[in-house]
């Protein structure tokens, strides 16, 4: 079952199209957008990630959706519901995550899209818990997590094994939300 289209008052969350590859690359190459990632993406890496995402989206009822403004641009970022891709004290679990080009920041799109994804995860897929994670210093994303009603416990902080050893963004925080808490 491929990804369904999910609509919110202002947004359409949809599967990827070929014309999403350029804005996806531009977003991943923007140092401001990628501020809390170990590196920006070059075109080769960007295309490889997009190909992998698109392939997984065809085989699963969850994955990475493109965020599209209903009355505006066709690519306003991405929102994900995906398996955490490494082992940690809180896995196996699925995470919600987002990335938007800077021109879409401050509009509430990440929160609106994430709420829709959480509703989908709990109501349609029957998941019991979803997490969100980011580097300790990413205050903007942490605020979104709090607006979503996710809870934070410092005892859940961890070193992300996908971030190079000693990198300033290796230490991550974990936020949780359970279906019963919604």
Shape: globular
Instruction: State the secondary-structure class.
Output: alpha+beta
The averaged pLDDT comes out at 96
Strand portion: 15-25%
Structure write-up:
The protein has 182 residues and is an alpha+beta fold. Helices cover 27% and strands 24% of the residues. It has 4 helices and 9 strands. The protein has helices spanning 21-28, 43-59, 109-124, 139-147, and strands spanning 6-7, 11-14, 64-69, 78-83, 94-99, 129-135, 151-152, 158-159, 171-178. The chain is globular, with a radius of gyration of 16 Å.
Keywords summarizing the entry:
24% strand, 9-stranded mixed sheet, 182 residues
List the helices and strands and how they pair.
Elements: E1 6-7, E2 11-14, H1 21-28, H2 43-59, E3 64-69, E4 78-83, E5 94-99, H3 109-124, E6 129-135, H4 139-147, E7 151-152, E8 158-159, E9 171-178
Helix pairs in contact: 1-2
Kindly summarize this structure in a few lines:
The chain has 182 residues and is α+β, with helices and mostly antiparallel strands. The chain is built from 4 helices and 9 strands; from the N terminus they run E-E-H-H-E-E-E-H-E-H-E-E-E. The protein has helices at 21-28, 43-59, 109-124, 139-147; strands at 6-7, 11-14, 64-69, 78-83, 94-99, 129-135, 151-152, 158-159, 171-178.
């Amino acid at each position: 079952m491929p990804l369904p289209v999910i609509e919110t008052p202002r947004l359409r969350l949809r599967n990827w199209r070929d014309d999403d590859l350029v804005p996806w690359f531009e977003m991943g190459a923007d140092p401001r957008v990628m501020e809390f990632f170990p590196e920006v993406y070059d075109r080769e890496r960007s295309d490889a990630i997009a190909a992998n995402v698109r392939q997984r989206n065809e085989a699963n009822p969850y994955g990475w959706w493109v965020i599209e403004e209903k009355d505006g641009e066709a690519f306003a970022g991405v929102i994900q519901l995906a398996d955490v891709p490494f082992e940690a004290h809180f896995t196996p679990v699925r995470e919600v995550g987002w990335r938007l080009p800077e021109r879409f920041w401050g509009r509430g799109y990440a929160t609106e899209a994430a709420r829709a994804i959480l509703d989908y995860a709990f109501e349609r897929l029957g998941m019991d818990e979803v997490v969100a994670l980011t580097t300790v210093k990413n205050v903007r994303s942490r605020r979104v997590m709090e607006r979503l009603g996710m809870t934070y416990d410092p005892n859940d902080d961890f070193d992300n094994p996908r971030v190079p050893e000693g990198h300033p963004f290796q230490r991550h925080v974990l936020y949780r939300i359970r279906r019963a808490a919604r």
